[in-house]
Design a protein that fits this description.
The chain has about 400 residues and is an alpha+beta fold. It is about 25% helix and about 30% strand. The protein contains nine helices and 25 strands. Strands 7-20-21-22-23 form a five-stranded antiparallel sheet. The protein has a four-stranded antiparallel sheet with strand order 1-2-3-4. A four-stranded antiparallel sheet has the order 8-9-10-11, covered by helices on one side.
Length: about 400
């Protein structure tokens, strides 16, 4: 009995490893690298510019199909290429009737990206709470780290000791604002490489949303009132000198908002069919426009709005598959499933099986009968191993390879 179980275990192990390696090398052999197009909105033409590779050469074109070389595109995207244009003496001094100030231009050049793997990532739920208004005007790493249990605690990192005085001060301030311990989600930017600090945005145990920061050693705690039924899923905190918004907010309905400095108001962004667990989201801004781009597996959708967040234009483009049509069909017939230990939508390592390809059952049945005739031709006693046939019927070529390897063993 133990011999039989050992053989079954080894065969299953071979199937799993084959489900990882064979599809991987198939993708390497027959797949092609797909580079997503770059989409910008030109303040000169007031239209979309799409950058992509054609004939191994990078080029820009507009929605009418007109192709621009690199130098022409630089002039059509002056806010993205202002350093280059300044060096060449080609930077315009005004656009759309507005005089351009380089410092103002820099403040308004905005960029945020949200990838699926950044939603609910693994992490240590202790973080530094910076002094938001330091005496020397420079952010420094504090000596203590913050955690949320039954209260808000400041833990001295060197001595592994709770700082009682400041812990009580912040816990009291949060409780007075209606905070329910413990904290559930925490969003912030725990880095000193920024101009200023806005602290953290925290979801409490009751689902309420709070802004917490330290100002001259004292707590600043604000209960941010959200619309009824609004549940915060994720936030990208963006500390920018423009100080128009705190960051990008995604709710459980996959709607995307900017959390404004103006009394914590929400400004909804156009994000058609966005799925935070599958799609990549890119937000760009300049002096005149805001551009929101949703990047899916096979489609890219961009929407431009003005500074009042009124929709101006939208653009959609299909993204070619990494497999050609023939290679994709063969893949579905050849492999009943695939296995990966890591995928692009999460940091977690696990067993990630693809959906089962029932079209592969035709090959599975052929391989099962081939194995039957092979065993019979060679006079194998293994004809009574019914689980061999079941394994090949389910796992196809993966199980067939495993049985061929271990057919001549004593197992």
């Amino acid at each position: 009995m133990m011999v039989k179980l050992s053989r079954i275990f080894i065969l299953i192990l071979v199937v799993l490893m084959a489900a990882v390696t064979l599809p991987h090398y198939y993708r390497i052999s027959f797949g092609k690298r797909v580079v997503n197009p770059m989409i910008n909105f030109s303040p000169v033409t007031k239209g979309f510019l799409i950058g992509s590779y054609a004939n191994n050469k990078f080029q820009w074109k507009d929605t009418n199909g007109h192709i621009y070389n690199r130098e022409e595109a630089d002039n059509l995207l002056p806010f993205s290429n202002y350093r280059l244009l300044l060096a060449k003496g080609l930077m315009p001094d005004s656009l759309q009737g507005k005089k351009i100030n380089i410092d103002t231009l820099r403040y308004n050049n905005l960029f945020m990206r949200l990838r699926p793997k950044e939603i609910d990532p693994p992490g240590i739920k202790m973080f530094p709470l910076f002094e938001s208004k330091p005496a020397r005007l420079k952010l420094t790493m504090p000596k203590d780290f913050v955690r949320f249990n039954t209260r808000m605690e400041f833990v001295n990192a060197r001595e592994n000791r709770v700082e009682e005085e400041i812990s009580k001060r912040f816990t009291t301030a949060l409780t007075e604002q209606g905070f329910t311990f413990p904290g559930v989600k925490y969003f912030g930017n725990p880095s000193t490489r920024k101009a200023f600090d806005e602290g953290y945005f925290v979801v409490d145990a009751a689902g309420k949303f709070f802004h917490i920061k330290k100002i001259r050693g004292k707590p600043y705690c604000k209960n941010i009132v959200l619309p009824d039924g609004f549940s915060v899923r994720h936030m990208v905190v963006y500390e920018n000198a423009l100080q128009e918004f705190y960051g990008l907010l995604v709710n459980d309905k996959n709607e995307v908002f900017l959390l404004l400095y103006d009394q914590y108001k929400l400004q909804k962004l156009p994000t058609e069919n966005y799925d935070a667990k599958k799609d990549q989201l890119v937000f760009r801004g300049d002096l005149f426009y805001r551009l929101t781009t949703v990047i899916k597996d096979r489609k890219i959708i961009s929407t431009a709005v003005n500074r009042k967040y009124q929709k101006i234009a939208a653009y959609k483009q299909e993204i070619p598959a990494s497999f050609g049509e023939t290679a994709a069909i063969v893949h579905h017939y050849l492999f009943p499933f695939t296995l990966q230990f890591g995928i692009k939508t999460t940091y977690f390592q696990d067993f990630y099986f693809s959906d089962y390809s029932f079209t592969a059952l035709w090959l599975n049945i052929i391989l099962m009968f081939s194995m039957f005739f092979l065993k019979r031709y060679k006079g194998r006693a293994g004809l009574n191993r019914w689980y061999d046939f079941l394994l090949v019927l389910i796992s196809g070529i993966f199980g067939f390879i495993g049985i061929l390897i271990y057919e001549n063993t004593d197992l």
